[in-house]
Amino acid sequence: ECDHRILTNRSVSLLQYSAVDSNPLSVYVMHPFWNFVVKFLPTWLAPNLITFTGFMFLVLNFLMLAFYDFDFTASAAGHEHVPSWVWVAAGIFNFLAYTLDGVDGKQARRTNSSTPLGELFDHGLDSWACIFFVATVYSIFGRLESGVGVTTLYYILWVVLFSFILSHWEKYNTGILFLPWGYDISQVTISLVYLVTAVVGVETWYQPILWHFLYRDLFTCSFTVTLPMSLYNVLKAHRSNTLKHSSLYEAFLPFLSPILLFVLSTIWVVCSPSNIIELQPRIYYLMVGTAFANVTCKLIVCQMSNTRCQPLSWLLLPMVAVVLLAVTGVFANETLLLYLWTAFVILAHIHYGVSVVQQLSGHFNILAFSLKKPNSD
């Protein structure tokens, strides 16, 4: 696969990170703030360690809300609500994660330690972070009469996931990463919403924010903004003859595995004998989000290294068997099957990430979480 080929190709050392961030919130507010924050970081602090710490804040949010609201019912009337301090912590942790995600690249340039490993590490963890912040936000409005159904949230999750991969699809075709406007707006908004929830309670979000516009509708809005902008950027590159892939098949090849993942996971949702999405929504979302991150990471490696995207991710092959076992009822305990498959997906993704990081670290003769050079034999 392409991730192994780039490690044996010395031209990988010539790769340069090219990104465009035109969001006014990011340009005029967040970047000046991040430039201010990065000055307080010690110069020995590795950028990848900053990236990983920010990611773990999102995982911590997910675990906190899993403890207090595992089934997404705590926000409904008549149920014991999530304690206010949890929402305060969630707001702080989310903003810290967003801030660290913004300063890691600045720290890399400040310490002259920018590498393709940093780009892969940053965007790879971002792809996995999607599921953690979506599931955490869901606890604000929940699944019962005051919120949205777990199946609806499943499709909203896919809106977020496809919004993320669109940016990397653009880079695969144009060589430039156009950062989506929806990301910065959503992160600032989510952080504020957590803090407001701690003060006024979850009941506030039962009512529309403006007219009939509910807070959950922000997810779909981010996609409606991102999709036309992505298509416009690719079309512009095509007209100027700077599109990296001339054929339509090659241009849309990165979408094959994500679409197949969507089809397989949706078949399981629709045809589940025990209605698994209702029984175990959090675990199902985690499985889908992690599998998506694995598929996306392989696209990120390919667009970093200017190599052809593989048509099919190997993880989808056993998933076909798992879905067939579930929907046909051959494996009677569907919940157990989901837990086993989710554990496998998580371990497979971690193994893939660790392997690629180790290989890139060896290739560039660097340490992933330190600015010191490895000891040479």
From TrEMBL:
GO terms for molecular function: ethanolaminephosphotransferase activity; metal ion binding. Its cofactor is Mn(2+); Mg(2+). This is Ethanolaminephosphotransferase 1. One of its GO terms (cellular component) is endoplasmic reticulum membrane. The gene is SELENOI. It catalyses: CDP-ethanolamine + a 1,2-diacyl-sn-glycerol = a 1,2-diacyl-sn-glycero-3-phosphoethanolamine + CMP + H(+); 1-O-alkyl-2-acyl-sn-glycerol + CDP-ethanolamine = a 1-O-alkyl-2-acyl-sn-glycero-3-phosphoethanolamine + CMP + H(+). Ethanolaminephosphotransferase that catalyzes the transfer of phosphoethanolamine (PE) from CDP-ethanolamine to lipid acceptors, the final step in the synthesis of PE via the 'Kennedy' pathway. PE is the second most abundant phospholipid of membranes in mammals and is involved in various membrane-related cellular processes. The enzyme is critical for the synthesis of several PE species and also catalyzes the synthesis of plasmanyl-PE, a lipid required for proper myelination and neurodevelopment, from 1-alkyl-2-acylglycerol. It is a multi-pass membrane protein. It comes from Sparus aurata (Gilthead sea bream).
